[in-house]
Structures are given as C-alpha cells and as structure tokens.
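Narrative of accomplishments. A recurring question from our advisory board has been how the design workflow behaves on a single, concrete structure rather than in aggregate. To address it, we present the structure tokens for one chain from the evaluation set, followed by the sequence designed for it. No filtering or post-editing was applied between the two.
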C-alpha cells in the first residue's frame, strides 16, 4: 500500500524572487514576469499539437451543423440542450450530473496515476497561455530578445511589437468570447448580431466578459491563476502518493551540480550530471527550479525534461536526469502501478459510466404532464353536465415531429373537448387544453380517479398519467 508524500519544506538553492539566470537578474518568481524560453522536445511537441487540436475543437464545434441546426447547442432560454441527435430537457439533468461525476472521477483517477497531466496538457488555462506565449515568441522574439525589449526605452520598434502582440492576444480573446457564447446562442446569430449590434445585452456582455477574462488570464496572469486561484492545484496533493508520476530530478545522479568542460572527467572532481546550465528553470512556465524538489507550482508539463534531455545529449550523458518518475523510484524503490486508491477511483469511474449508460438507455422519447385548472375544481355546463378542465403538456424529446394520440380511462361515458390527436415538432413542447364533461348521474362519488393515456405513431410506448375528476356528488 502506498504512503502519502510527506510535506516538507524546500529551501530553494536560489533565493526567489531575485534568482540569477543566465540572462542576468530578471525575476523568475511567478508573481513577476516569467520569460519562458521556447523548447523543442517530445513533450513540448505533444503539448503544442495537443493544444492546437483542443483549441480548434473548441472553436469549430459550434459551427458543426446537424439536421439543419447546430449540432451542440445549450439553449437555456428554450430549456433544451442539443447534442447531435439527442435533446436533453430539464427532466434529463440527471444525465448531466452523471457527466460531471464521470469527469470528476476521471480527474481523480488520472491525477493519482499520472499527477497533474490535466494541468500540463489539457487545462484551458495552460492551453491558452501556451498559445499566447507562441504569439509572444513570434512577435517579440526568443526569450533573450524579449528580456532586452522590455528593458529598452520606448521606441518605434518596441511600440509596434507590443501593440501587435496585444492586438493578436485580443483577437484570440474575442474569438474565444464569441465561441463561448456560441455554445448557448446559435453561432451565426452571435457573429451577425455583434456586427449589426442586434445581439442581446446578455449575450454581448458575455462575449465581452469571456474576452476580457481570456486576455487577462492567458496574457497577464498566467500561472498566477494556477498557483493562487485554481482550487484543483490546492487539493490535488491529497490524491498524490509515492507511486504517482511526477516530474522529478534525480538528486543522487545530478549533484553536486556545476559547470565543466565536455571532455572533462567530472566525476573525478566530485561533480554529478547536472551541468547547472539553468535551462530547466528558463523553460519552466511556472518559474520554478525542479531541482529543489516537488513543488505545488509544478504543472507536470515536461518542459524541463525536454530541456535537460537536450543538455544531456549535448554533453554525451544519458538522458533522464529530470524525468516523469515517482517518489518511490527516486528513492531507489520500484513503482507500484496497481494500488488500492487507484483501483477505488477506477471502480467509481466505471460505476458512474455504467450508471450513465443505463440512465441514458432508460430515457423515454416523450414526456407527459397533466395540469388541472387551478381556478375552478369543476363547472356545470348548460346541459347540466359536470366539466373539468386540464392542460396536457407533451414534450417531444426526439429529433422528428411526432403524432400524439390522447385518451382518458376510468371515467364513465363523457364528452371530450379539445384535440385528441396532435403533432408536436422535434424537440418541442406543446400545451394541449382539454375539457371532460360527464352526466352527473353517471358519477358515484365527488372524486373519480382517472388516467390520461398518451400514445404516439412512432413508438409502442404508452404513457399513463394519473389525475382526478371532481364533481359535487
Ligand atoms: S518544473 Fe518542469 S514540469 Fe514542472 S512546471 Fe516547470 S517545466 Fe513544467
Ligand atoms: S537542465 Fe539539467 S543539467 Fe541543466 S541545470 Fe537543469 S538539471 Fe542541470
């Protein structure tokens, strides 16, 4: 059984925020500017391609059409959530609850197994930040140039580069804001409404809100969001154990760190494999030094692994001084992949997925509700018959128009006023007012239990809904 990683205070080898880097004395503390150095490598490729893919998926999804409408549209006003051929109504919110529970247990499972891979590779905050850094890199240049540019007094070069960078950031933020709202309001309406000024106040406000939030989070705050605002960063350590994969530095192999000549017998002078090139710090988006041990700011992005592997390659040393590893492995033991906590989260995840599938399969194609007239229990007609009034609410949950047939059981011979057959459009709700009138001599008590029976042309399903017929007897 795995133990929890004990909490210990790490004394940084370099004082922060004024840690020295090869660039001089620019701060690397997350509260200050972090000049992230671009790095090539396996994990950075995975992040870059994965990030672009996720962003494209997010931006293009609202534009996917399906049977003449938007494939995914969460129409709050109409209380309908459309997912391709499935339309969910407020009555189906249990399915949405299962989706959230599945997502939560999947997060627990993968965090226990692979650490903060969600943070490093798929979290929107990370993905957008990396895309913003990509623009920064393309417009202002590599890390060294950016530091130099920031230190230079304002001139034309600095002005146009900074202006263009912020213009690109704002453009990405605007597209993000529009896309967010396009999940709730049809995408063409959002774009057209913004251009013509006809978009509703709520939708316009939402676009501006998401735009500014994206610009501030990915452009300015970056890892401050991860370290100070994200609750997941705080409680994820509760899921970690000594067999969780983390990004770790092999202290025994790396220390004592220090510069040396490539061909030098460094071991003879008491040095380890770390050449103290500082690359692992310069590429870190969180501005930390992983050689100080596991820190809560680390998002498991693997940039320092790629950086260090590059240095190891150049020096002709074996790769993996920094690697995805576990506390047990770093301590010289072996990693236990299958362990009770992981099995527990895995089982909970499977149970939730089964519950979701079963609930989805039990979901009916239509719903019926019966509302009695609240103002009047009954009334007497000119012929002296007793009349009760109802509203039948028919919810067509399918993607096709459906013909409904209505009848009532449990009532003596009666007169039915109102439609007994009605077509309801795909995903629509119809209110059908009806009245039932009965000769009072046919009634044996002041209250008769009745049952409305609703059938459709398209399925064998029959829905029976209890109600009451009141009279004065
Ligand atoms: S320490 Fe390494 S893995 Fe952690 S955030 Fe920094 S670069 Fe990424
Ligand atoms: S990148 Fe590797 S060699 Fe360079 S300082 Fe970091 S741990 Fe040491």
């Amino acid at each position: 059984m795995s133990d929890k990683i004990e909490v210990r205070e790490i004394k940084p080898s370099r004082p922060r925020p004024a840690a020295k880097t090869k660039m001089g004395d620019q701060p690397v503390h997350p509260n200050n500017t972090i000049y992230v150095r671009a790095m090539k490598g396996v994990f950075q490729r995975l992040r870059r391609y994965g990030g672009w893919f996720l962003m494209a998926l997010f931006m293009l999804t609202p534009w996917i059409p399906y049977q003449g409408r938007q494939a995914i549209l969460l129409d709050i006003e109409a209380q309908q959530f459309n997912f391709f051929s499935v339309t969910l109504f407020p009555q189906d919110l249990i399915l949405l609850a299962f989706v959230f529970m599945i997502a939560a247990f999947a997060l627990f499972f993968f965090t226990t197994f692979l650490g903060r891979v969600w943070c490093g590779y798929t979290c929107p905050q990370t993905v957008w930040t990396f895309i913003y850094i990509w623009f920064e890199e393309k417009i202002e240049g590599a890390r060294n140039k950016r530091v130099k540019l920031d230190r230079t007094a304002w001139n034309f070069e600095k002005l146009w580069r900074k202006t263009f960078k912020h213009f690109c950031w704002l453009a990405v933020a605007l597209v993000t804001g529009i896309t967010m709202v396009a999940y709730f309001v049809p995408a063409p309406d959002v774009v057209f409404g913004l251009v013509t000024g006809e978009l509703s106040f709520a939708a316009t406000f939402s676009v501006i809100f998401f735009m500014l939030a994206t610009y501030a989070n990915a452009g300015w705050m970056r890892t401050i969001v991860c370290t100070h605002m994200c609750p997941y960063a705080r409680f994820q350590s509760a899921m970690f154990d000594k067999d969780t994969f983390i990004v770790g530095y092999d202290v025994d192999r790396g220390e004592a760190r220090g510069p040396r000549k490539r061909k030098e017998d460094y071991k003879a002078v008491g040095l380890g494999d770390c050449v103290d090139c500082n690359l692992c710090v310069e590429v870190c988006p969180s501005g930390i030094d992983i050689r100080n041990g596991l820190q809560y700011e680390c998002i498991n992005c693997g940039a320092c692994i790629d950086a260090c592997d590059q240095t190891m390659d150049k020096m002709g040393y074996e790769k993996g001084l920094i690697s995805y590893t576990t506390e047990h492995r770093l301590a010289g033991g072996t990693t236990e992949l299958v362990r009770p906590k992981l099995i527990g989260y895995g089982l909970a995840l499977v149970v939730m997925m089964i519950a979701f599938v079963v609930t989805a399969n039990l979901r009916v194609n239509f719903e019926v509700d019966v509302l009695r007239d609240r103002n009047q229990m009954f009334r007497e007609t000119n012929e002296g018959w007793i009349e009760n009034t109802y509203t039948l609410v028919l919810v067509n949950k399918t993607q096709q128009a459906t013909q409904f047939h209505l009848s009532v059981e449990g009532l003596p011979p009666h007169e039915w006023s109102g439609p007994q057959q009605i077509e309801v459009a795909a995903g629509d709700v119809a209110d059908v007012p009806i009245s039932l009138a009965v000769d009072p001599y046919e009634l044996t008590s002041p209250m008769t239990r009745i049952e409305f029976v609703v059938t459709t042309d398209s399925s064998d399903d029959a829905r029976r809904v209890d109600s009451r017929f009141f009279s004065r007897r």
